[in-house]
Amino acid sequence: MDVKLHPMFAVPFATCVNPLATAMNRDLRQLILRLEQEGEAHRNPTPLMSIPVGLYESDFTFFARGEPCVRQLREFCWAALGELIGALSTRNREQLEGLRISSHTWFHVTRDGGWFGYHNHPMASWSGVYCVDDGAPDPAFADNGVLTFPHPMPASNTFLDAANLALRWPYSHANYAQRLAPGQLVLFPSWLGHFVSPYRGSGERITVAFNCWFADGSEQA
């Protein structure tokens, strides 16, 4: 019998690695730690989430900076996001090239015990997280500093039995845990909820994140 399987309600999720990340990440790390040391000058003045001890969140203008490492990261992120949108969209190339991007961009510095609670990003279409430094998480702790996406279909595990308990990806009921590596970018729709589990280690876990929304050439961004 020819039974055709279809991922009916798929969530687009993408990862890519910057092959030139080593030097860029070194410069980003130095810059971000310097900005963090300047304290309130660069801290998010109106956080919508509770900011726990061990986490520094910057304001939302990081990609507006002019340092070469920031420009390089911005170009990499926008190129990757453009490729993802192009692969998914029914718009033609000319229409896609006419899109104008608006964004919020910020960095997190997480030290031992820091974490970030469950949230999503309303009023944006696409989000991303880039790993500058994973902080060398202590392997003695499970899910250390992991970016976790709870399953977005809460009714899918309402009833579990022997026939649907052990489904393979992408049909599993389980959460998805992304262990970030330096130079890695993760892209996902902004509506998708996620959180960062507590980081345990002696280093600094440094990430740059962004939310984006778009207008075509005839619209006000």
Structure description:
The chain has 221 residues and is an alpha+beta fold. It has one domain: q2cbj1_9rhob like domain (Jelly Rolls), CATH 2.60.120. It contains 3 helices and 10 strands. The strands form 2 sheets. Strands 1-8-5-10-3-2 form a 6-stranded antiparallel beta sheet. Strands 4-9-6-7 form a 4-stranded antiparallel beta sheet, with no helix packed on it. Helix 1 (21-37) crosses helix 2 (68-88). It is globular. The N and C termini lie far apart (51 Å). 25% of the residues are buried.
Shape: globular
Classify the beta-strand content into a percent band: 25-35%
Radius of gyration: 19 Å
Total number of β-strand segments? 10
**Averaged pLDDT, please?**
95
Q: Tell me the CATH architecture.
A: Sandwich
The number of helical elements comes to 3
CATH topology: Jelly Rolls
CATH class: Mainly Beta
Total tally of structural domains? 1
- CATH-level-4 superfamily name: q2cbj1_9rhob like domain
Query: Order of strands across the widest beta sheet?
Result: 1-8-5-10-3-2
